[in-house]
Amino acid sequence: MKIADLRISHLRGVRPLPNLDARFRAHIVATAAGCWEWRYHLRTPSGYGLFQIPVESPRGPAWRTESAHRLVYEAIHGPIPPEVEVMHACDHPPCLRPNHLVKGTPKLNGEDRARKGRGIRGERVRTAKLTTAQVVAIRERYAAGLESAQAIADGYGLEKGETVLAIVQGRSWSHVGGTRTIDDRRRAEANRNTKLDADRVRAIRASRESLSVLARRYAVSKQTIAAILARETWRHVP
Ligand SMILES: [Zn+2]
């Protein structure tokens, strides 16, 4: 398979737009190491690629931010069951090469991470219900802004979304890595020091203008705009 053969426009729920596949492929570069690397500016803090796909919503045409490697996996293998994690055999988060993307359950992912020498402290606790790899995966999924804490909790058989919030904010499993999400109180303080508010954030998300144009208009950096669009920040604003 070649990069030119990748298609995502046929996925369920995707609104047909001319050149959608070509636009997706334009952000992928084959590397010397053999990976197909996502070079678009939308990424999670840990480097997983994000892409805004056009969808239909009850209010009409809309855009949804999706994980790029999961889009590729789904395009080739069909819908991804909730208990399945799509893992990188190459251990390179921005990679989209189909034969580097492998299916694992959170448990398998845990064994894989442990084999690669990542932390195991929490797993030694007999009562722990999660593996460290699951904790990292939970933090990355939440940081990507695609799912609610409760939706992630359901996927791991955890009763409460609050358990997931404690994990992503580092209040539990603090010895394990992954992307931490700032808690609401600290975020509110940080937001007071910016030129943004909920109305401006909504306007930025609804806009189809470029990052540069939006950054100039709101007098913030392009990274700030990208983080808003990827829902890494201002997650509490619908
Ligand atoms: Zn790869």
What does it look like?
The structure is a single chain. This protein has helices at 20-25, 68-77, 106-115, 121-124, 132-143, 149-155, 161-168, 184-192, 198-206, 211-218, 222-229, and strands spanning 28-30, 36-38, 50-57, 60-67, 85-88, 101-104. By secondary structure, it is of the alpha+beta class. It has three domains: 3-77, no CATH class; 105-181, no CATH class; 184-229, no CATH class. The strands form three sheets. Strands 1-2 form a two-stranded antiparallel ribbon. Zinc ion binds next to loops.
Short description:
With 238 residues, this protein is an alpha+beta fold. Helix content is 38%, strand content 13%.
Order of helices and strands: HEEEEHEEHHHHHHHHH
The SS-based structural class is alpha+beta
- Helices, by number, come to 11
Report the helical percentage.
25-40%
Average pLDDT over all residues: 80
Principal-axis shape: globular
Cα-based radius of gyration, to the nearest Å: 18 Å
Q: Within the largest sheet, what's the order of strands?
A: 1-2
- Extract low-pLDDT stretches: 117-128
Query: Which ligands, by name, code or SMILES, are bound?
Result: zinc ion
The first-to-last residue Cα distance is 39 Å
Keywords:
238 residues, alpha+beta, two-stranded antiparallel ribbon, 11 helices, 13% strand
List the helices and strands and how they pair.
Layout: H1 20-25, E1 28-30, E2 36-38, E3 50-57, E4 60-67, H2 68-77, E5 85-88, E6 101-104, H3 106-115, H4 121-124, H5 132-143, H6 149-155, H7 161-168, H8 184-192, H9 198-206, H10 211-218, H11 222-229
Bound molecules: zinc ion.
